Amino acid sequence: MVDVYADEGITGRSMARRESLKRLIHDAEKGLFDVVLIKALSRLSRDTPDSINIVRTLHSHKVEVFSSREGMIDDELILSVISAVNQRQSEDTSYNISWGIAVKSKEGIFHGTPPIGYDKVKPGKLVPSVVHAPTVQLIFDLYLNIGMGVQAIANHLNDELGVLPSRKNSKKWHDSSIRLILTNRHYTGDLVQGRSKVDSKDKKFLQDNGYKKRHKIDESEWIVVPNHHEPLVTREQFEAVQEKMKQKAARMFRGRGRKSLFARVAFCVDCGAGMNFRNDRKSYVCATYQKNTSKKCSSHIIKHDALKQVVLSHLKDLLENSLNMKSLVDVTIQRAGIKKNNAVKELEKLQREISKLDKELVQLTRKWTSGDIDTDMFNACSVAVKNERQALEERAARLQTEIAHEHDTESRVSAFKAELMKFASLDVSNEEILRDMIHKMINCVDVHEDGSIEISYNFQNPLKQEA
Question: Membrane-spanning residues where (predicted)?
Fold first, then answer.
């Protein structure tokens, strides 16, 4: 006995999360054993291709597979038939379980982990949690009546009240968990289940991830049992929260046109986070500050119009200098072309000289083999020819590098000229054009705590390298 390889609680329909099975195959490759004992083929895998591949892999490492139910596994035809039966049984079991859950859901039996604020008692009944129900009610009150946002509520629970989530291994509230609570219809007393279903046909997803893909179901097909359990909030409170969230989402959406002007361009210079646009303040603030307040970073707030004005000022300077720059660019291109042409001519001359030396060396060899010159003379002359040839080859290599460099310089400067001409013709008063220009031309805008900025451009000036 080498080891026991058991994947407990992991589906046999995929190898994605079966670490013990992967370890068994790895140990087989190392030759740690020569036979694998299994209770039944269904314990090895419930997927036909997986079963065949696993057995083939073990056999390729001279490891036999013995099942207490099926005996020695050495016939692939029998293996395929048994595996197909096991897979079909697994699919039928899965369907029966899903059907049973749907039937019991319609009867008002809750399945799964209860929402935060409720405890589950047999037979599948939800009852308010003495410990966590007040927290849920507080969250609704903070959002609806106090006016806090989801992140502000999470910070309030984490830092000021020290209330921990009810989930295991959860030590901190997040905006996403607050949002889930505020949109969960269970808190009105209705039992709502069957909001998604698995896709049993997508076997590739199952093989890659170890679980089935889920699809959301249209709300009209949900399984709803009204007034199933004691509510934590009234229907009027819940609907008011949904309406408020919709209005807030609409305001955020309307602000996206302006927000996108510097989205993924403006960053906090201290923490590196993006600068988020606040429509209510017409300003950009550090995302870290917005999420965690001043405990992690300061606001770095800068008015949208102020940021836009500074960036436009920088772009205007570039536009004003573009005409003078254009003449310098033309000179640089011409100079690079002349240097490259001269280098090409010299290289061609060197290659002709190297060819002559090769012929001289051939002639020397013929004279030596025919006895016209002795060995000492041949060695002296051939060394001289080879040394001269080596010097020419080294010079030729330097010229090739120089030609490549000048060609690169010519290409980069020509590209820079094209950018300048394109840039000079743009209408910066059109915000759509300005937005496109900013995202193409600017790499990042670093915003300092005092509101000053530094701009890093995407378009590089190769003339600085040539100077």
Answer: none
